[in-house]
Amino acid sequence: MPLFIAVILWDKGLTISDISSFIALTAVGFVVALYYWDRLRAQHDWTQLISLSFILQSLFVASLIWGSDTLVTTAGALINGAAGCFYWSTQRLLFQAITEDKNTGNTFGNFQILVVFALKIGVLIGSYLLGMEYFSGVLLLSFMLSILGFLSVHKSLRRNTQLEKLKQVPAFTLKQVVKFQDQHRSSLIFVVDGLFLFLESYFWMLTIYMLTQENVMQLGLILIALSILLALIFFVIKKYIDRVKTQKIYLTAVLGYAVSWAIRGFLDTEMDRSLMYSALLLAAFLSNFFRLAFNKRFYDIARQDKPTRYIICKSYYSQFMLVVFFSMIAALTMSSDTAIHQLQVIYYLCTPLALVYFVYGKSTK
């Protein structure tokens, strides 16, 4: 269901400006929740950490079912941010704990393969229900899965004591977060990375929806085709990324990522369909290859010093800047220009900005 959030909001009548405001509020909810998540983490309260991600997701789905008025949408955005905080922060922490210095590329590659196959199943069911105009069916299914996930995780955590063995540092103060700095220019990357992640998960998905003439079944088929292709790609390259020179792979991935945003800006509803599908596949490959290289570097750098602090500071910096970036986008997209053109302009502006990733990992000493 998370893949369809922007599509659902769009079909509810929200504009690009409205969705941008929704994302900004989501970031506010994330930052507030992160403060409390950090304290639960320090207390080793894994049951609440993992279970709350399911509970908050269920509440968010309920807000989408409830209606589309301003108050409910605002509350839904804040809950969505809190749900994302508890899920992604916990996932990053656990991923960092299970990886070793020389296998982050392979481990993340395995994770990506698992994700794309799970997405394929979810997208197939979701797109079918939406295509048949079973809007409530999609939301109710997501709600039920969240409840089942909560019950299953809660039961397994009561039997499993392995998480209790993970050592945790004390919770961080906001002063410690603000003073964070390292020799890898991490804070600069933290500032921009959230923008790109949310543009991909919200606006890029909405762009594909528009390119398919708002045909949700066609959108689902495209996403499934991309998932299969990307799973095959990661299966081939996941064991090689740790063997080739890291810097060479990373710089190539960053350049490709910048190109992917130029490709996104180039796409429109009037272009040849075969060219459009080829461009979609290329943009997807370049983006996911970059994410594989970037996440390897991220976890390798995090492990060098204080991984928990590094992960938490990344979340604070990225989410705070999301409030700034998407508030600006909301203000700038209040014009009467077509939505697809507004998104194209955003993508073209992101093309040179993506080159900032080149400096990540370069020592300032």
Write up what this structure looks like.
This protein has 365 residues and is mainly alpha-helical. The chain has a single domain, classed as MFS general substrate transporter like domains (Growth Hormone, Chain: A, Up-down Bundle), CATH 1.20.1250. It is 78% helix and 0% strand. The protein is built from 13 helices and no strands. The chain has helices at 5-11, 16-42, 46-66, 70-98, 104-131, 135-159, 174-178, 186-211, 216-237, 246-266, 273-304, 307-332, 339-353. The longest helix is centred in the last third of the chain and has 32 residues, at 273-304.
Annotated CATH topology: Growth Hormone, Chain: A
| Strands, total number | 0
Count of alpha/pi helices: 13
Low-confidence stretches: 107-132
The CATH architecture is Up-down Bundle
Distance between the termini: 45 Å
- The coarse silhouette is globular
Determine the strand fraction and express it as a percent band: under 5%
Q: Using only CA atoms, what is the Rg?
A: 20 Å
Mean pLDDT: 80
The structural domain count equals 1
Instruction: Name the CATH superfamily assignment.
Output: MFS general substrate transporter like domains
Q: Share of helix among residues?
A: over 70%
What are its keywords?
365 residues; mainly alpha; Growth Hormone, Chain: A; 13 helices; 0% strand
Could you give a quick summary of the protein structure above?
This protein has 365 residues and is mostly helical. Helices cover 78% and strands 0% of the residues.
Task: Lay out the secondary structure.
Layout: H1 5-11, H2 16-42, H3 46-66, H4 70-98, H5 104-131, H6 135-159, H7 174-178, H8 186-211, H9 216-237, H10 246-266, H11 273-304, H12 307-332, H13 339-353
Helix pairs in contact: 1-8, 2-4, 2-12, 3-4, 3-6, 4-12, 5-9, 5-11, 8-12, 8-13, 9-11, 10-11, 10-13, 11-12
